[in-house]
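User: Structure please.
Assistant: Input sequence and predicted structure:
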Amino acid sequence: MKKKILFLIIIAFQTLSWSQNHRYTATLFPSSTSINNVIYGSAPAVDGPLYTMEQSTSPQNLIMDIFKPAGDTFALRPAIIFAHSGAFYTGNRNVDDMMTFCDSLAKKGYVTATIDYRQGFSLIDNIALHGTRAVYRGLQDGRTAIRFLRANAASYGIDPTKIYFVGSSAGAFIALHSIYLDTPSEKPTYAGETVYQNFTAPYTHTAPDLGGLDIGNNLTFNGMPDAIVSMWGALESVNLITVNNNKPVFLIHGEADTVVPFNSGSPFGSSSLPPADGSNPINTKLDALGITNKETYFVPGAGHELYGASNGTWSNGTGGNSYWPIVFNKIVQFLWKQHKPTADYSWNTTNLTTTFNDLSTGDLAWWWDFGDGTTSNLQNPSHTYTTSGNYQVKLYVENNIQSWDEIIKIVQVPNLSNFENNKQLFSVFPNPTSENVSINWDSNITDVMYQISDISGKVILENKITNSNRQIDLQHFSKGLYFIKITTENATQILKIIKK
């Protein structure tokens, strides 16, 4: 328990020193640094080049490149894994769009990784069998990558509870199946041992059992991502989705996609390929189950890899088209929502003094802007305004991973009534003062309370005074401006005190 408290104190101190940095949405770092050719696992891959003989395999190291913000000293960051397109037949982790995602999001404060996964999809015969097994192997590799980052979170400065998966096309098949094909009972028949006829001798082949969802190393760690982004992907069947499958999902798809169906159908429009359910029926199924932890971006008339890429390579050679910044910014916002706190507050105003009550959730540190040029880092500050009026008060909050939120509300500070604003009711002297100050009032008034606040609104001293002792000791106060709120049964008055 003591270690946990110390950790929170350290994080709070760091956070306050970086007030309003907007990590994860703003580009805070000038560049990223990469750790290349990291082996995250090993698995048997079907031998090429035709991939028709499922039993003929060779061990394959699974490789990822990891990107981190250059110069970042923070060590508890969410991670994002990216999986490339290529129909489980071609492509690699270093294609343009994956590299751009990794670099751009690392500069916003994430740890990012782009992965190679096993390829091996024969389009010659037994296409349904080979296609199903290719997706299942990709699913296994995606889970292996997630387990690897969880197991090595401390080495790479990652929060192991916040690992997300983003896939394009074939990579999106991996992403979707990683959250919806999640129990052994859902394992496809073709992923088990299967006897099939092939055009090559000895003609009868046995496809070995591919094993469970998790194979290889780090098996004590969870292989399911904490949220996914599916860009123009599809699912074997929406029947895989159950009411318990409520991981956050962002579905992005062009409604005129002829490669991966937006609705239901076979990829590439080829009846020889097994049918799949695209983003639209997936979204419909989620709606039917009442699952709301999702977002969609469906673009009428747009096709596959709608942001201007072909198998991950920029079509114009330099960057994406006009959809690229839209897709990128929507992904930025979606992922930020998965780990941000939620800012909120209420307030109560008595004359010129407003007491603020933090109602945020998931927050650990606070930064208030009272709208009059003054600020505070207290959770529930009290602030005394010098004049009445409407003030835009902003509360910015952060949590333990430096994720943030902010809210602005209009706080109305009302005019004082003539009686409350009567400067003859109370007075303080001497003012300015270097030691003590006395309060003067009509001797008929009793039960006088006072409260002294500094310029940030922090209450420093409060007490009751009587007719016989109206003096307040200010010798221990620092030099500066203070506000004294004097309260009786029928009146409140706020005066300034200058300690010299």
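Residues 77 and 323 are 28 Å apart (CA to CA).
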